[in-house]
Amino acid sequence: MSKDYQLKASINQKLIEMGERERLKELLRAKLVESGWKDQLKAHCKDVVREKGLEHVTVEDLVTEVTPKGRGTARQQQGVGKGQKSSCTHAPKQCLTNKPPDHIAKYYILKT
């Protein structure tokens, strides 16, 4: 296992233990809904089905067609270019630093 993978797994585990993972998922979900991203992707799915015909489209086809657009438009909604991180990626750090010092210490112990 790479160090990067181990670090990500450790941080993910701590977020779960602290109950922050679900909160962050809800925050992201709310931002995507608020920005209209979800509605845009839903409309794109409908367009694909109309173009190809309901009988000729599978769920896999929709996923293949919509995933790149979804990722690209999510970045655009945040004003983020490819390779950059959105404001949502800073939320885990904020939630860790808003906790009492013992939580921060545990985070840094895991990081090293």
TrEMBL record:
Gene3D superfamilies given in the database record: 1.10.246.140
Domain of life: Eukaryota
One record GO biological process: chromatin organization
Short name of any one Pfam family annotated for the protein: EnY2
Region named Disordered: 70-95
InterPro entries hit by this protein: TF_ENY2, TF_EnY2_sf
HAMAP family: ENY2_Sus1 (MF_03046)
Family the UniProt entry places it in: Belongs to the ENY2 family.
Subunit structure: Component of the nuclear pore complex (NPC)-associated TREX-2 complex (transcription and export complex 2). Component of the SAGA transcription coactivator-HAT complex. Within the SAGA complex, participates to a subcomplex of SAGA called the DUB module (deubiquitination module). Component of the nuclear pore complex (NPC)-associated TREX-2 complex (transcription and export complex 2). Component of the SAGA transcription coactivator-HAT complex. Within the SAGA complex, participates in a subcomplex of SAGA called the DUB module (deubiquitination module).
Protein name: Transcription and mRNA export factor ENY2
Source organism of the structure: Oryzias latipes (Japanese rice fish)
